[in-house]
């Protein structure tokens, strides 16, 4: 019986030992992706994550600009900042300017991208032209718009005076100052966002437009039924980046009235501008770090809300059958 088993047993194949080149290829396949992305994460840890953690540590101390670290106060700085009326005033100004800039900015950027997506002559020239405001330095933009929105000798008030209208107090009143600063933001960033949306529109297959045109859909119908659903991920990206930038606005309100940090009555002082005042004028780094962390949490909250809304809209659209699909289903049943 033993001899029979030995005769019928199959010989075991011995795998050859992999060479050094083969082991190196396996290591390259497994480890090279991590090595390629490692520089970004290392740089982010140095200039992003470490300052974020260190700012939180500073917010737990009574930290002075010149004297340095003081006593440990825990969450006392957070409690005092949340009870500070100037902080809530700056947050109101920030959200107001953000809404006045983000909503028109997205609408105008969509319109410009749709126009640039047409068969225009000298398309490259027009596409590069909308990017020129983004290239101009913020200081030059602030100087131009400060002269335009001047209360006594501004261009806009002079035009209003020619029509017998009273001048607008662009720097002294809350809403006019917010409109002026939002106009500066829109002028600088609308073309940039329009090019991002245009790149997404260029990726939409042209066969969809041709099929819709054959079905009798007009240009407006094709835009709302094909273009907007196709570029929704890009629109979500633009909304999120505009939200982050809008809540961190500093340059425009700071240069709009360089003599004050947000107006004589803080009528257009944003949260970042109030942070700058707390850190370098009041020299209180502990509360300034606290404001920075509260602003970080607010931005994260806005980002999560944008994500949930966009996800809900996308889910609702995916569950809703398209008009063409309904037509095909009706033809099949007939």
Quick recap of the structure?
The protein is an all-alpha fold and 334 residues long. It has 16 helices and no strands.
What does this structure look like?
It is a single chain. The protein has 16 helices and no strands. The chain is mostly helical and 334 residues long. The chain folds into two domains: 22-73, no CATH class; 77-316, MetI-like fold. It is flat, with a radius of gyration of 29 Å. The mean pLDDT is 84.
Task: Please give the structural blueprint.
Layout: H1 2-8, H2 20-59, H3 76-82, H4 85-116, H5 123-129, H6 132-135, H7 138-148, H8 155-162, H9 174-202, H10 206-214, H11 219-230, H12 232-247, H13 251-256, H14 271-280, H15 285-319, H16 323-333
Family: Belongs to the binding-protein-dependent transport system permease family.
Keywords: Cell membrane, Membrane, Transmembrane, Transmembrane helix, Transport
Protein name: Binding--dependent transport system inner membrane component family protein
